[in-house]
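Quick log. Single chain, no ligands specified.
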Amino acid sequence: MPSEKFQSHLVAAEPGAQWALRFSDQRQFLLSLAEDAARSEFGRFLLCARGLNWRTTDLLFDPAYQAMLRRQERDHSLGLFDRLAFFSCPLFLATQERFHIFQQCTQPLVMDGTVLASLPCGRMWDLLSLDYAHIRQEVRLVGLDKDQEALQSAQALAAEVQAQKPLHGTVEFRASDGLRPGLTEAGIRQEFDLVTSNGLNIYLNDDQCVTFYRHVHEALKPGGAFITSHIVPAEEYRWDQINRDHWRLQTVMLTVLIGALWEPRVKPAQLVREQLEKAGFREVRILPDLQGIFPTFVAKKPR
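-> predicted structure:
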């Protein structure tokens, strides 16, 4: 838990910040953090579910939500939990960077006539936020998720995006379970040129991960690509890029207060590579974020 000296250092490092830690009593700090988490949409879900769903993960990337947090920061009304989660917590900063790495890997694969899928899609912000202006031959975007509320929200976002900047192509949604053979009741086989996936495998055990990867492999066309990510153990982090004070605060937030469900499921990057290869993928590239916490994996299905 943060020491008094450590807390004083944080106050000095963040002049005027309303969220700065001023509690010398460790129990008082934890209680205060829990109370503040209960006032936060992001924090309430974490406290109840001990993990993130499509909506709370989306908050990390949602431009409108980020703008709201920045306004609260400027007028000193931003709560401690949200301030730490969105602007200090190394894991969530890596998650935000991971989203942009996905975008950089996915955008070059957007070509005429391609079929792109997201599983689990959530609001499908990963595909809907790409640039399709250069497309001449229709593309297909397919959102796959077993959460009906997520699919409905994705449909709403797709309609909103289409109204603002029409997509030259079609958008469709299907109920899907990554651990089910064929992914859907009708079954999917060699349909997609690309599948992106974030937020499922970090909750799966080793056998489930291989099963999931095999199902994705079957759903891809020969030569298709799979882009996913995984949290790796601390010994693989780039510690010279990580704020140690914020890391200690993250431990209090996610381990002590939340008891995050993904923590027992972290996997070395090499193990993730081996599981992808066991499922049939080849040419696996590992693209780390700046802190080395949440690397992206780009794998190809052989032709």
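The mean pLDDT is 89.
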